[in-house]
Design goal:
This protein has 624 residues and is α+β, with helices and mostly antiparallel strands. 16% of the residues lie in helices and 35% in strands. The chain folds into three domains: 91-339, 3-Layer(aba) Sandwich (Rossmann fold); 350-461, Immunoglobulin-like; 464-620, Jelly Rolls (Sandwich). The strands form six sheets. Strands 1, 2, 3, 4, 5, 6, 7, 8, 10, 11, 13, 14, 15 and 16 form a 14-stranded mixed beta sheet that branches. Strands 27, 28, 30, 32, 33, 35 and 37 form a seven-stranded antiparallel beta sheet that branches. Strands 21-22-18-17-25 form a five-stranded mixed beta sheet, with no helix packed on it. The longest helix is centred in the middle third of the chain and has 19 residues, at 321-339.
């Protein structure tokens, strides 16, 4: 008897949800009749039991009920013909795919070489105790991997002398063995420098001449389902054409694999691209692929993503052996939650959004002229660790950095960004880990890293319109109270002084009269006139550093009797219903004992506003 598929020495059989495996075997034999199976030392299987038939030179076996564990010695017998396979186990089996970082290029000096309880189906087609390098392309009989196949003896010799070849899978399986207590099997199928086009499921019929066909044949030889797929690939997609199609191609690949393996909910663990040095020209496409990988769980169920952006390299693009050990542990944490419903693991940490802050604390650390944003994270266990400075940046529509962040600080699952307002650009977005070699080292207490994220739109960020920079009034301080004024009186006092233009210091639209107000107490009055071509709803972005009142025509639209430093652009958003035609805006500010500097007022658009284009903004009728 000769076994063709389904059983080898050192093989791991895949358990089901009841912790039992079914043995599926095919082979050749000249015998005819029932095939009997004996499992040495296993109660209930010690005596031969019929599990298949042999005829026409072929036989097949299906034997359910093998419990998790081992090693088992399994004997097949048909008449006088028999074959015995020792050292068989039942546990979890994982398919390994992707390119070089999954294949393994890390230094072996700082990586794992082997681990008890972990076995692998090598590229030669033979099972054995897992030992790095797991992937040795030259021992594969498939043309897609090598032009000349070496012997098992030569492969063993090369493994002994190899100095590189570490990947994440061995550390992953070692941790899964520690967590579950069951044997782990790895099916090596990755190949460095490959693209999703080369992994196209449509090439399955080419067998060992295609990556997908070779992987499918390796799986088919085991005669078993699998626990999941470990995938690390995407570097070859970081160009304009392929990055645009990454999601489409990856989804097609996963769906085809689930269909072909007859496992429609096959768990998939994928690694987000890490760093690369000396490839700045692909930064935009690199980040584009990373962002698609980050949000892939929104497109495919039973899929987990693990970040590698903070890990060390052994060359310009490949993770070191020590980094692969950390990555393997991260993959195991995500896999354990994804696969085992009783796991206490929470999801991996991630950035869920960024918003503009308006209710800022009045503390001494806050600069009078800054704007603040808050980055919101989810699933952070414990605290954030790692360097937060320079990890975040804003980018424009062309992915160019807008260098406006002056300070970054983290607390719990929040990161606060303090930004210089006159560098803010309309439509800018936030990114964590910009470029191909960023400073992006944030991780939680589990050593799960924050994935590269973005560009993300900013919640509650107003789209700036024209500023109200021409005002009559300002320098004179009047000995009265805010609550004693109305719009007409403020306008009358303001019109006694010349029209002046703001925006000459600190940030656009800022009306700065601090030098006139120092040492004085009282009220400064201002008035301007506008015209709106249509009736519309919009907002005024308002920043100030003293008690203030604001009127539209004769109607008060804003009052803050407690206004004080700092003055922050657009810190307050004032809703305005603006009829068509000419209007007057009057403003009175208490100079706060000379501590006030001024105010900034400009039109802004929120998503609910009715402004549709630049021609609809109200125009200022005053000029200096």
């Amino acid at each position: 008897m000769k076994i063709l598929t389904g059983l080898q020495r050192h093989q791991v059989l895949q358990r089901d949800s009841q912790d039992l495996a079914t043995l599926y075997i095919t082979g050749r034999t000249s015998a005819v009749g029932p095939v009997l199976v004996t499992v040495k030392g296993l109660r209930g299987f010690a005596k031969p039991r019929p599990a298949g038939k042999a005829r026409a030179g072929r036989f097949s076996v299906s034997l359910p009920g093998l419990p998790t564990g081992g090693p088992y010695e399994i004997t097949l017998q048909c008449g006088e013909a028999r074959v015995t396979v020792p050292d068989v186990r039942v546990g979890d089996v994982w398919l390994l795919g992707g390119q070089s970082n999954m294949q393994g290029y890390g230094d072996l000096a700082s990586g794992l070489r082997s681990s008890p309880g972990v076995f692998s189906l090598r590229m030669s087609g033979l099972w054995g105790p897992a030992e790095e390098p797991l992937h040795m392309l030259e021992e594969s009989p498939d043309p897609v991997h090598t032009a000349e196949t070496i012997t098992p003896a030569e492969a063993a010799k090369r493994r002994l002398t190899a100095r590189s070849g570490a990947g994440p899978a061995l550390a992953f399986a070692a941790e899964m063995h520690r967590r579950t207590g069951v044997p782990q099997g790895l099916i090596a199928c990755a190949h460095g420098g490959t693209s999703l086009n080369q992994w196209d499921p449509a090439l399955k019929k080419e067998g060992g001449r295609s990556l997908y066909g070779s992987m499918f044949n390796a799986w088919q030889s085991t005669g078993q389902p699998i626990a999941g797929l470990l995938w690390y690939q995407g570097e070859n997609e970081t160009n304009e054409a392929d990055a645009a199609k990454y999601t489409e191609r990856f989804i097609r690949f996963v769906r085809a694999l689930r269909r072909d393996l007859k496992q429609p909910r096959l768990p998939v663990l994928t690694v987000q691209l890490g760093r690369v040095i000396g490839n700045d020209g692909s930064a935009r496409h690199w980040n584009h692929v990373q962002e698609q990988q980050r949000i892939m769980p929104e497109k495919l169920d039973q899929l987990g993503v693990v970040a590698a952006i903070d890990l060390s390299l052994s060359d310009n693009i490949h993770l070191s052996g020590a980094a692969h050990q950390r990555l393997g542990l991260r993959l195991a944490q995500v896999a354990h939650r994804l696969i085992h419903t009783r796991s206490k693991e929470t999801p991996a940490p991630t950035i869920i959004g960024v918003r503009r802050l308006y209710d800022l604390p009045k503390d001494s650390l806050t600069n009078c002229y800054e704007v603040q944003y808050e980055v919101q994270l989810a699933n952070v266990v414990g605290s954030l660790h790692g360097l937060v400075e320079r990890s975040f940046c804003f980018v424009d529509a062309e992915h160019r950095v807008i260098d406006c962040i002056i300070f970054t600080e983290s607390a719990g699952d929040r990161v606060r960004l303090r930004v210089w307002p006159n560098l803010i650009k309309p439509g800018m977005k936030l990114i964590y880990g910009h470029g191909t070699n960023p400073v992006a080292l944030l991780r939680d207490d589990r050593d799960l890293a924050i994935p590269v994220t973005g560009p993300l739109p900013i919640k509650d960020e107003p789209l700036p319109g024209p500023g109200l920079v021409f005002w009559a009034g300002g320098p004179s301080v009047h000995p009265t109270k805010l609550n004693q004024l109305d719009a007409d009186k403020v306008a009358a006092l303001a019109r006694k002084e010349p029209v002046r233009k703001g925006g000459e210091s600190y940030w656009p639209d800022f009306i700065n009269l601090h030098s006139h107000w120092v040492g004085h107490s009282g009220i400064a009055c201002f008035v301007t006139e506008i015209e709106s071509a249509t009736a519309q709803k919009l907002h005024l972005g308002f920043g100030y550093d003293g008690p203030v009142r604001l009127w539209l025509d004769d109607r008060e639209i804003y009052f803050d009797p407690n206004g004080t430093n700092p003055c922050v652009a657009d810190h307050h958003l004032v809703p305005v219903k603006l009829p068509r035609g000419r209007h007057r805006i009057a403003l009175a500010i208490d100079v706060n004992g000379g501590a006030a500097w001024g105010f900034a007022l400009r039109w802004v658009q929120l998503s609910k506003d009715s402004v549709r284009d630049s021609h609809a903004w109200p125009i200022c009728l005053l000029e200096a």
